[in-house]
């Protein structure tokens, strides 16, 4: 493919997540990849230093390629799953040449009364006897002949091990599952205490209810998100009809999460990949929150926004505290975040900044979790003169974002004080 023909094609490529295909002159797929930004990722294959950054096998593949095609997805998570399903079914030569069968990553679901959802490697699969089956259910590696499988489902191969681990964390927040705990062991396992296991260990969930969760996970890994959402909506209506409002609320949260997947950690990992050029990550939106009151009166909260290092003042928001008790800053923060996350018409943040430390971070993370989202939270700790002393949270996530975090936090403090003074005059 010439650079001129590529440039014409590249102009049509969207700046969205998805999967891309390199094809030869007969339109046979040579290579499949996934991207946070299709346009930025594919452009990287036509850089001058391709052989250095991607290696000779990829360079040879690009030289053979005559066409590029792509498929958009709603999120990086769906791109990750689609990539694995396409590699499994099409087995492109340059994907399989780049990596030995035994080093691929897989997601397996065991054949048990309460199936476990586990991550494994191709070399571990190769040591077992597996049953070949329909696409999306086969447990065999590329070159292994199979006989019998100890697994109910096997999904893969997934080329990106670290991203797969992050994806499983995200999926588990939406659909809690069992991995290592023992059935009916009499006490809640650690993951159950975190809300990541539905209580298989303590007998809190029936076999039938748990199998329903497994079916939801299977549909997601089969790339059938639309079908999965319809199933969840049907179950939600049935639960509401039976006046099981707690179950209906849980299902509603799962539908919401699937429609608004927040895969910041997956974007972060792709951005850090040495083969990804700067610019692959799309706009980074930091939202900061602060509360203000005078001895419990004129209680207000605010949200400020910083995108790509610049304050977006037209997107700042004010909140009059309605339910939190006077002087309860943590309660006020919970109220403000809950009201903010109800506005799904606003762009979602890639990072939330709170003014405070452990209590404020925990409160914010709890609200985010209630919405089945995976938005990371950091806290800015101040000294006695209200100057920033430390940023608490994931150090890897904070690194390189300090300026944006502190700017958003400073703007939130300034905006909150101004709004509080205005309300105080009215009151």
Describe the 3D structure.
The chain is α+β, with helices and mostly antiparallel strands and 427 residues long. Among the domains are: 3-97, GIY-YIG endonuclease; 285-426, 2-Layer Sandwich (Nucleotidyltransferase, domain 5). The chain is built from 17 helices and 13 strands. It has helices at 3-10, 38-44, 50-54, 56-64, 76-90, 93-98, 122-126, 161-174, 190-193, 207-221, 225-241, 245-259, 264-272, 329-341, 358-370, 395-398, 402-426, and strands at residues 18-23, 29-35, 67-72, 105-110, 117-121, 151-158, 285-294, 297-307, 310-311, 317-320, 351-355, 377-382, 388-392. Strands 7, 8, 9, 10, 11, 12 and 13 form a seven-stranded mixed β-sheet that branches. Strands 2-1-3 form a three-stranded antiparallel β-sheet. Helix 14 packs parallel to helix 15. The longest helix has 25 residues, at 402-426. The radius of gyration is 24 Å and the shape is globular. It starts with a helix and ends with a helix.
